[in-house]
From TrEMBL:
Keyword hit for Transcription regulation: no
Cytoplasm in keyword set: no
CDD domains the record matches: GGDEF (cd01949)
Keyword entries, A-Z: Nucleotidyltransferase, Transferase
GO function term, MF aspect, one: diguanylate cyclase activity
Coiled coil: none
EC number: 2.7.7.65
Protein name: diguanylate cyclase
Length: 463
């Protein structure tokens, strides 16, 4: 096997042109005697870096027992069956990148010839396919969004070693980013980022969301986007951050996907491809989640006023009534109905009627306490539950609602002033058992009385 004769030089030339990475070592001494060009290109190591088998395995694997645990049993198995089964394994290259390789060997006298095929691309494609199917299955099963995003993050981190990934979700109302998934970034870092307002120079993600375009920061410590966050990044031990805005199929911003690196670094073409893959998957997951969220919202909330709907009111009332039944607590239920609403529609148009209902909801919410529950249970009919509320307090709240709605400032699309009033009926539960229906019936009777008394007033139905 020594390459020193004329013919052997030709052998070296031949081996250097083969696309398969080849090397051989002495079985008796463990010395590595030859590696071809494809080997050097694949792993980056020369014979000086890996003079023997021991140095080779300590270079390519971070597991101390790698040779004993993986290689020795595999060689033994091959020798026993007399067939060199290919071993698929992950090896570190000299530049610390990882390669998935298929290894085989053959014995020629004292020399063991090694053959390595780079199967990283197949491996990645297979892993991505698996991650994609796993994610889609989770989407179909309506799994928690965080769990779905974690699958994507883990896949990227596996493909891109020494990377930490995060998915942040865009909160349109607050123009901020909320934590979606970042399982391996430290908690203190995630807490600091959670809820951050987007804008120019708000790190890579805040800026990417603000600009709606990919932001590559290869050195956090010197980049202006990170000026206000360098200390935080130092504590989290991250030095580079590449962030991609995640867009919906309609082009709306859904969030950001980011890859962090421990050392200053720029993305390669493969990294860009990986970012595209992850952003695309995250977009499917988030968009589907938003659709589900919207369906859920529509099932429980009134689309015009944003208040709870009849179904939600009954469900929540049932829960509150059960709690108060056990503790014998008092509570009040009110029915509120717009007076002569048909006239409002007739005089100012249906659109103005809608605006009136929205204004009424907004005014009511500004008066009610956060523990109170208000719902639109019919066209111009609202039900209100006041937990832990006595008669005097309930009447005060009802009167405040009536007065504030009467004096609220409301204009039609043609800028005409609209005057609306409401009638309210109040009923009580004082300890004991009572169903939602019973209470609502009582409140309805009270409402009927207040209408009969001339409207724009409150009527309390005593037991
Ligand atoms: N603009 C608008 N109107 C609605 C909506 N839902 C119901 N209405 C209208 O509300 C009106 C209710 O009229 P009525 O039941 O006769 O009651 P009213 O005119 O308010 O009279 P009183 O309740 O007796 O004071 C009808 O004209 C409905 O068309 C809605 O979502 N938007």
């Amino acid at each position: 096997m020594n390459i020193n004769s004329k013919d052997d030089i030709r052998l070296e030339d031949i081996l250097n042109t083969t696309p398969v990475a080849v090397g051989w070592s002495s079985v008796s001494s463990g010395r590595i005697e030859y590696v071809n060009k494809a080997f050097r290109d694949l792993f980056g190591y020369t014979l000086d870096d890996i003079p023997n088998i021991e140095s080779w395995y300590s270079s390519v694997s971070s597991k101390p027992q790698y040779y004993q645990d993986v290689i020795e049993p595999w060689i033994k198995e091959c020798q026993e069956s007399d067939v060199a089964h290919a071993l698929k394994t992950m090896l570190h290259c000299k530049d610390r990148s990882l390669k998935q390789v298929s290894v085989t060997f053959s014995l020629v006298g004292d020399k063991r010839l090694w053959y390595f095929s780079d199967v990283t691309d197949y491996w990645i494609a297979e892993k991505r396919l698996r991650a994609r199917s796993e994610m889609l299955e989770m989407v179909a099963k309506s799994s928690a969004l965080k769990d779905i995003l974690n699958v994507i993050v883990k896949q990227v981190q596996q493909e891109s070693p020494f990377s930490l990934c995060s998915v942040l979700l865009f909160d349109k109302a607050n123009q901020s980013l909320k934590l979606g998934a970042a399982p391996d970034l430290p908690d203190f870092y995630n807490n600091a980022i959670d809820g951050i307002k987007i804008g120019a120079n708000v790190g890579s993600c805040g800026t990417a969301a603000h600009l709606g375009e990919r932001v590559i920061v290869d050195n956090i410590h010197t980049h202006r986007y990170w000026k206000n966050f360098t200390q935080l990044a130092r504590e989290a031990d991250v030095a580079a951050c590449w962030s991609d805005p995640i867009m919906s199929s309609k082009g709306d911003l859904l969030g950001t996907f980011a890859i962090y690196k421990r050392f200053p670094s720029s993305p390669t073409d493969k990294d860009f491809e990986l970012i595209n893959f992850a952003s695309n998957l995250a977009s499917i997951a988030i968009e589907n989640f938003r659709v589900q969220e919207e369906l859920e919202r529509r099932a429980h909330f009134d689309h015009l006023t944003g208040l709870a709907n009849r179904r939600q009111f009954f469900e929540q009332c049932e829960t509150i009534l059960n709690q108060s039944k056990e503790a014998h607590l008092s509570l009040a239920i009110m029915m509120m109905d717009v007076d002569h609403f048909k006239q409002v529609n007739d005089d100012y148009g249906h659109k103005s009627g809608d605006l009136a209902l929205q204004k009424l909801a907004e005014t009511s919410l500004s008066i009610l306490r956060k523990e109170d529950l208000i719902a639109r249970i019919g066209g111009e009919e609202f039900a209100i539950l006041l937990p832990l509320t006595g008669k005097k307090e309930a009447l005060l709240i009802a009167e405040r609602l009536r007065a504030n709605i009467e004096s609220c400032s409301l204009f039609s699309p043609d800028n005409e002033k609209i005057h609306i009033t409401v009638s309210l009926g109040v009923a009580f539960k004082q300890g004991g058992r009572c169903s939602v229906d019973e209470l609502l019936n009582k409140a309805d009777k009270a409402l009927y009385r207040s209408k009969a008394l001339g409207r724009n007033c409150v009527y309390l139905l005593e037991d």
